[in-house]
Each structure stands twice: as structure tokens, then as C-alpha cells.
Here is the input.
Amino acid sequence: MDSRNGSVSETPLDAEIGSFFDSAPPLKDCDGIAKKLKDFIEFNSPPPGKGSPTGVVCVTSGGTTVPLEQCCVRYIDNFSSGHRGATSTEYFIKAGYAVIFLYRRGTFQPYCRSLPEDSLLECFECSDDSAIQVRQPYAEAVKRAISDHHAAVAGGHLLKIPFTTIFEYLQILRSIAMSMRDLGSHAVYYLAAAVSDFYVPWKSMAEHKIQSASGPLDMRLVQVPKMLSALKKAWAPMAFCISFKLETDSKILLEKAEMALKKYRMHMVVANELSTRKEEVTVVTGNEKILVCRDKTQSDSDVEEPLIELIVGRHSAYVKDSDL
Amino acid sequence: MDSRNGSVSETPLDAEIGSFFDSAPPLKDCDGIAKKLKDFIEFNSPPPGKGSPTGVVCVTSGGTTVPLEQCCVRYIDNFSSGHRGATSTEYFIKAGYAVIFLYRRGTFQPYCRSLPEDSLLECFECSDDSAIQVRQPYAEAVKRAISDHHAAVAGGHLLKIPFTTIFEYLQILRSIAMSMRDLGSHAVYYLAAAVSDFYVPWKSMAEHKIQSASGPLDMRLVQVPKMLSALKKAWAPMAFCISFKLETDSKILLEKAEMALKKYRMHMVVANELSTRKEEVTVVTGNEKILVCRDKTQSDSDVEEPLIELIVGRHSAYVKDSDL
Here is the structure.
């Protein structure tokens, strides 16, 4: 379309995004997810004339996979335990927000991060009369996990939606954005998931398992379209958006975070380095760089506690400004 | 070395394997793992003159990862839930074997396969007096998981060792082979893990996260040396070895299984196709192709039950032959 005729012209990015979604394998249970989202947003929307709730946050968590074969045996994965997303979800709910937790299958879940791996086998034992009981060192952690998690879900404050591939992740994120649209400035995106930068387009993918018989494997991966642009410009123009930048090389971290802030017009970018990410992060905004550290006088403190406090403060100010 | 002087000449494969291990990042807690293996094998070895136990099986399970960066953010993964390895472990223990379960972190565990994902949150609830209790539909499955698993570990029949990368997997497998050497024909390898065919040698790997700014990503992966050859020829020459061949294309499956049987001198290759692998497998031996199916008159039967029965029979015959 031609912008001289008053219509919006399609940019190269729009075309790239369109072609990504057109060629993606269809999402399973698409209608079921849309229904759950609709109910959750309705439950957490303000009744007319009764003022506004704090808001709804979409927290994304864990890494996406990129299949290398359609009958997927091999895939490229992004490392992410999901600890940041799970922990932040707890603090958002504590601050009065409702959370849509879009998480990679098998990663950390809210309220469960102090449990050991293999929690069922580690935390429980069978007593002599063959009753199942919690082993003593884990009693408090298990009780907290089960009761707090249940309270959040049963109270309608937490909706969990799992994904595995980049195709699932981006299709569900778009659905969430559509559902949250009417929330305007009360919608928050906290994009902590580690999203693949590169993928193999579905149509150019090998149908069957790649054979290993003949020498080295050469692969060409193309860039995933920058969906943050689409989110901010088209899907959720009024929402408060926080993205993450993870690097292992501290020398380029802040520079790259600032670039992301400008390029995708985020409200905040949380810059974290792989080795220190549980101790401190730097929040980059339009005119500040704020170092946020966990309370080191407490052994069980989280950097997410002051981080979410900072975000909640900024988001409240943003809502007030938008309401003027 | 020159074979004319009576010493064994180094083949190209030996050189490849040597260079793989030399360049691999060192295994964490190498001594701790060796100690656990030593104790487990000692406990499960026959006292002198008292005849032999059934044997010790090394079951490998789940997929290995191949890091693409040294500070690992991205990696290539092989799909494998670990269901085959976990289920087979239960049947081997039931048949009187001790099992070293070498498994990918986060995959299915023995005795836990009928539990839902997120089992802790799904299977338990907090009662009104804030005691933790099992939710009714899961009562039997949870009790079985905890008591059978505990019995196997406490009884000294099950040793679990986790891995993530191909480097960890192959280093631990070699340690296991060294520990099991004295068991001779009583040692069984049941290699159900989905091991990467390709990897990026540690030394040619990017140190930091690969940047996405500049166009498509071209990668060259080289073949992982065929360790099955090393296992059979050098590490465990007397052991009874079963490997797996998974394909998504049934047309090439049996042919590839036969090739693997001959090339690596396995005793059996279990051929399975991705879509039907829980229903049936074909066991390829030197002169047979045996179709093994689960008992379809029982809804909760496993193809691993007749499969392990077949293997146990063949292994017993092999032990008798070796003892002659």
C-alpha cells in the first residue's frame, strides 16, 4: 500500500513478520488458550466506574527452541533456567498485579525456586505405615510452594501458559497482546524469556532427521524478525514494556541495552551479565542507568525484589501520566 | 606407533577420540563420580566363589547438548524425553540387575513416568489445617514413585548420574566403562541416550555470545567421533552391548540399524521410529529381526517389558557362553 493515499505502508519488517507467522506451524489448542486469556483478563479488569486495578503483567520466562528438522529430533536452544521470570512473578503478584506467566516447559515455576531438582523424589518419603510425608529439611519450602502457588492460581492472579519452540512463543505472545489491548497503560510486558535470534524457516527445514554419514554439517540460520518492534508499534502501543539484554561480555552490555531501548522504544531495558545476574542488574531508561543490587546482608534476598519495586513505581507514574 | 614393532598402531579413529577428550572442558566432580561408581560396582559384584549376580547395566537416557559458545547461552539439543531409559531401568531392576542410570538433567526418572509434568504442584494440596497431602487421583502413582524409587536407591540397585553436554556424557560413560571392566560379560550397556552426531570443538568455539547484528548465522559442525567403536573395542570388550537407532523415516530405519550393528559390533540394535516408538520396536541381531510390541490388550502396558525380557534372555545365554 502507498502511504500517499493515506493508508499505512507496509515496511520490510512488517513483511518479514507476516511471512514468519504465515509459515509457522499452526499453534495447538489456539482457541483454548484464547479462551483462558479472555477469562483471565475479564476477571482482572476494573468494573466500569470503579477505578483501575494495579494492572496485568505478561511475564515471559525461559528460552525458546528452534527446530532444525520438521519431525523434530534436533533443535537449537537458548540457555535460561527461568529463575528470573519465576521470581519476578512472585513479586509482581505480591505488589497486587495479575500475571500471565508465559514459560518454557520444564523451567522454574513461581514459588518453587527453593526446592531441589527432582523435588518429588527429594522432598518426600514413605513412612513405615506407607504414608507419604515431607522430609524435614524441606517442610517449609514444600508448604510454601504448594499453598502460595495454589492461592495465586485459585485467586485468579496467576495464569500459566507453557511453550517450547520460537513458533509457539511468538504466536502465544501475539494472542496475549490482543487480549490485553483494552487494558491500555495498565498492561505491562516483562520480557525475560531468552528468545532465539536465529531460526530455520519452517518451509526450508529438512522434513526428516539430518543424516550424519557425510562429513561436517553446514547450517544457515536466518534472523528472527524483531518482534519487540511489532509488540510496541502494533500489538500493544499503550503498554509499559520492559525487555532484557543478557551478555556474557560486560564490555558491550550497557551499550547494547541502550541500543535496544531506542530501537524498540522500550520503557526500560534490564541489562544483566551471565555471571552476576543473580546479584545485580542495571536498569537502562531514556535518561538513567540505575544499578539494582540484592540486599547482601540477607542470604536469601533476591535482586528481583528491588527490581520489581522500581518497575512498579515507574509503571504507576506511567499510568497516571497516561490518564491525564 | 608402528605395528611392525609389536605395538598396536593408532587408527585415525583413536586419534579423533584422543583429540575429542583432550580438548573437552574438564568434568566437574570427576573424583566424586569415580568414587560413587567404585562403591556401587563393589556392592554389586559377586563375593569370591559365591557365583555371579545377574549383572550391572549402564542405561543411558535423554539427549546430549552441544554448546555453540563457551559461556554457554546457545546450544544444539537432541530431542529425547528419557521415557525409554527410565522405563527400561525399572524392568532391569525388577529382573534382578543393578542399574547405573546415566541421564540428561530434567528428563524422565525411573518410577515417575505416570506422574504429571510439574508433579509437585499438580499432585499435592494444602489441607485446611495447612498439612500437605496427596490429591486423590494421584495417590497411588505418588506412593509408587516415592517408595519404589527409594527402595531401589536405598537397596543399592540404582545409581543415578546426571549429564547435560556431550562432553560430560562421553567422559562419564568412559569412567563407567573403566569401573565396570572387571565385570566382564556381566556388564551390559543399554545405550538409549540420543547422542549428538555433530559438535563444535571446544577450542574453535566462540568465547562469548554470538552477536545477531550482522545477517544470517553460518555454522560448521564436525562429526562426534564414533564412541561406540571405542566402547566395544577398547573400553568394554567383554560387555554385552545394545545400542539404539531412531529415525523419523521408516524406509531407512532397518537398513541403518543393520549397518550400526556391523560397524560397531553391537550385540543388538533396537530400531525405533519416532511416531510408533512407544508401541513397537524391532530388535536387530546378527541373524534376526525381532518385532517387539507392547501388550495392546492392557492399556498401561509398556513395550519395554517384553524388550527387557528378550534382552535378559540373550544376555544370560551370552554370560553362559563366555563362562565356558
